[in-house]
Amino acid sequence: MPEALIGKRKKKPKMLQVSCAFCKGKGKDPFDVMSSLSNCCVCNGKGLVQVQVPYEACAHCRGTGAIKTFTCNVCNGKGVVSALPEPTVICPECRGTGDDSSAMAMACLKCHGRGRITGNNESERGK
Ligand SMILES: [Zn+2]
Ligand SMILES: [Zn+2]
Ligand SMILES: [Zn+2]
User: Fold this and answer.
1) How large is the average pLDDT for residues 22-40?
2) pTM score
């Protein structure tokens, strides 16, 4: 049981505003799903999104925020994800692509689409 996690107070996460990857900062729906005039569903038309620092580019969507015309479900369209605590290793399942081997549009189950996993997790056992 990870008792060490209980009672330890985490520092308040630092947030940063970055340009929305899904609409490239334009604030409009990039794929005209509703209409070209509708606001981007990721940033609500602001062109900016809040991300937690430190962050890294989302492996699954290659930082674009989109999988085909859908919002990437790993980064929720932001194009970045909060970085994993070090040390990390390249995910052996998807070799860092963040994609499921059977369906590219799906996120890798092992690393949840990040392309990396925490390296010192001994309970994580490969098949
Ligand atoms: Zn946007
Ligand atoms: Zn993504
Ligand atoms: Zn993976």
Assistant:
1) 86
2) 0.81
